[in-house]
Design brief:
Strand content: under 5%
Largest sheet: none
Number of helices: 6
Number of domains: 1
Radius of gyration: 16 Å
Distance between the termini: 47 Å
Shape: globular
Number of strands: 0
Length: 140
C-alpha cells in the first residue's frame, strides 16, 4: 500500500484563506462607503482569519508530535496576528465603529505584500451573507 497524501492540508487551506482575504482587502479599498456588501466582505475576512488561526494550531501540533518544537513556535509567532485581527474586525463590525476601519485595514496591508491581485477569482457568493452570520453568532 502507498503513502496517504492529504491534498487538503492546513497549509493549503491557509493559502486559500489568505488569497480570499487579499481579494477582499483589495475590493474594500475600492469601496466608497460602508454598505451591506462592504459589511459582508469585512465579516468574511473575520471568518478567513479565524480559519487561519485554527489551522495554525493544527499545524503546530503536528510539528510538535514530530518533536519539531522550534518550528511549531516559529509558525505560531509568524501567524499570531490572525486571531487578534479576527477579534478586532468582529468588534469593529458589531459596534459599527467605521471610523476605526482605515487604521485596522492599514495594519493588515503588510501581511498581504506577497499577494499580487491582478484578477479577482472569488465571486460574491464567498462573502454573501457573512455579516448576518456574524451577527447571529454574536446573538448567541
Amino acid at each position: 500500500m502507498g503513502r496517504v497524501i492529504n491534498t487538503d492540508s492546513t497549509g493549503k487551506q491557509r493559502n486559500q484563506l489568505m488569497r480570499t482575504a487579499a481579494e477582499l482587502l483589495r475590493r474594500l479599498s475600492q469601496q466608497q462607503d460602508i454598505d451591506d456588501n462592504a459589511k459582508d466582505m469585512l465579516a468574511a475576512m473575520v471568518f478567513c482569519f479565524r480559519g487561519i488561526d485554527e489551522g495554525i494550531e493544527q499545524s503546530a501540533q503536528a510539528w510538535e508530535k514530530r518533536d519539531y518544537w522550534m518550528k511549531a513556535d516559529e509558525l505560531r509567532q509568524r501567524w499570531f496576528w490572525a486571531g487578534g485581527m479576527a477579534d478586532d474586525l468582529k468588534a469593529l463590525l458589531v459596534a459599527e465603529e467605521w471610523d476605526r476601519l482605515p487604521a485596522v485595514l492599514a495594519k493588515l496591508l503588510p501581511r498581504f505584500n506577497e499577494f499580487k491581485i491582478t484578477k479577482f477569482t472569488r465571486s460574491e457568493e464567498v462573502w454573501a451573507g457573512s455579516y448576518a452570520r456574524l451577527l447571529r453568532e454574536q446573538a448567541r
